[in-house]
């Protein structure tokens, strides 16, 4: 129950997705099941009389993703290999919409649309969700990179099966996992934006420990076998140095290409990681740094954005690339 201030009885305020996010309303499961009959067997009525699915069941979550991508984005085929990251679509869409606002801030308040806007998705994964949402919502041209050849192959199969995506999304494999931009950023590349959902664990052991904690919270059972409803391969979930180590390397690699990108961005899962990132950005000479918060349910997430251009230089960039 909510009080007059819109907070729950426990005092936690329900936070809303971005205003342009089409997933703000409660899931309409009958409508989604019509878009994807594969979802129908997983839909059930809970104790409150509402239709839902078991979000701890990876097969149910995967079927829901297929339905959402079909209904809202016109994706007729979408599949990922077993064990690969199956992300929640609403949160991923939120990042894209806030990125559109970031570009609009540099463009006199107008969101740039169309294939002239080029975006690099670092670690696009087998699911290819960020490029799908970005190109369907704003018509942008996406380049997705990943170190995993299986992920690249799965994402490529999605593109090949959806002609409208194939025209707007390009995939590149990162052959050296010690690098982020180097090796996929070609000599003639100019990007208006980069985005990333970085691995946030420092090791496989810490990842397993965190997963056990989350699973106990979900199932209330200390002895239950840990199963991730969202899946994920090791390189999607952990790397040496964890999230902050990965992003410090990204910042360092952004310097040589700093004059060939308007905004570099990445999600930051842990708020405590912001301070060392901001310090490094100051050291490398970033002219603008922003921390942008996003909300879903009762959870706050965020991304960091940095640019090597001041306001006047950003306006000149927009005039040159989007107004010509």
TrEMBL record:
Its main location: cytoplasm. It comes from Maribrevibacterium harenarium. The lineage of its organism: Bacteria, Pseudomonadati, Pseudomonadota, Gammaproteobacteria, Oceanospirillales. It holds the Pfam family Methyltransf_10. Keywords: Cytoplasm, Methyltransferase, rRNA processing, S-adenosyl-L-methionine, Transferase. This is Ribosomal RNA large subunit methyltransferase F. One of its GO terms (cellular component) is cytoplasm. Specifically methylates the adenine in position 1618 of 23S rRNA. GO terms for biological process: rRNA base methylation. It is an enzyme of class 2 (transferase). SUPFAM superfamilies: S-adenosyl-L-methionine-dependent methyltransferases. Gene3D superfamilies: Vaccinia Virus protein VP39.
């Amino acid at each position: 129950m909510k009080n007059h201030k819109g907070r729950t009885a426990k005092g936690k305020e329900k936070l809303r997705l971005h205003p342009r996010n089409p997933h703000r309303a409660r899931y309409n499961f009958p409508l989604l099941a019509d878009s994807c009959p594969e979802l129908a067997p997983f839909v059930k009525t809970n104790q409150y009389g509402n239709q839902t699915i078991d979000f701890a069941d990876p097969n149910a979550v995967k079927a829901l993703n297929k339905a959402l991508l079909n209904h809202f984005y016109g994706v007729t085929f979408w599949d990922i290999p077993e064990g690969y990251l199956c992300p929640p679509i609403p949160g991923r869409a939120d990042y894209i919409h806030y990125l559109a606002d970031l570009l609009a801030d540099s463009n006199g308040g107008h969101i740039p649309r169309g294939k002239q806007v080029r975006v690099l998705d670092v670690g696009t994964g087998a699911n290819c969700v960020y490029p799908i949402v970005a190109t369907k919502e704003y018509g942008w041209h996406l380049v997705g990179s990943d170190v995993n050849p299986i992920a690249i192959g799965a994402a490529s199969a999605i593109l090949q099966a959806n002609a409208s995506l194939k025209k707007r999304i390009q995939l590149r494999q990162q052959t050296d996992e010690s690098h982020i931009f180097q090796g996929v950023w070609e000599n003639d590349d100019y990007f208006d934006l980069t985005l990333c959902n970085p691995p946030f664990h420092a090791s496989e052991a810490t990842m397993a420990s965190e997963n056990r904690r989350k699973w106990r919270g979900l199932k209330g059972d200390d002895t239950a076998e840990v199963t991730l409803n969202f899946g994920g391969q090791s390189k999607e979930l952990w790397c040496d140095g964890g999230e902050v180590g990965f992003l410090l390397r990204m910042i360092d690699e952004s310097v040589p290409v700093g004059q060939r990108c308007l905004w570099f961005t990445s999600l930051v899962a842990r708020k405590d990681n912001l301070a060392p990132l901001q310090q490094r950005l100051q050291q490398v000479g970033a002219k603008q740094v922003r921390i942008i918060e996003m909300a879903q349910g009762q959870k706050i997430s965020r991304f960091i954005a940095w640019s090597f251009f001041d306001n006047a230089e950003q306006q000149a960039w927009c005039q040159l690339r989007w107004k010509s």
